[in-house]
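Q: Hi! First time doing this. I have a protein sequence and I read that you can turn it into a structure. Is that right? Here it is:
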Amino acid sequence: MPCNRYRSAISARTAGTALPPEITEQLLDHHLTSCLDCRRWSKHLSTLRATTDDLLRRRPTGAPPKPV
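A: Yes, that's right. Below is the predicted 3D structure, encoded as structure tokens:
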């Protein structure tokens, strides 16, 4: 299975949404142990998500509502 499907699963996991039906948590975890590029992608995405969440928490009063 190509990495792009795993990256979709990594994105879903990071966002807290359901994984694609063909990828289980165990299959994703196994892939992450064997694929350096996807481990890097996962770390990058997690860092980006955490930074974005932090910035949204600290936005000033009166700022526009959180984007969808």
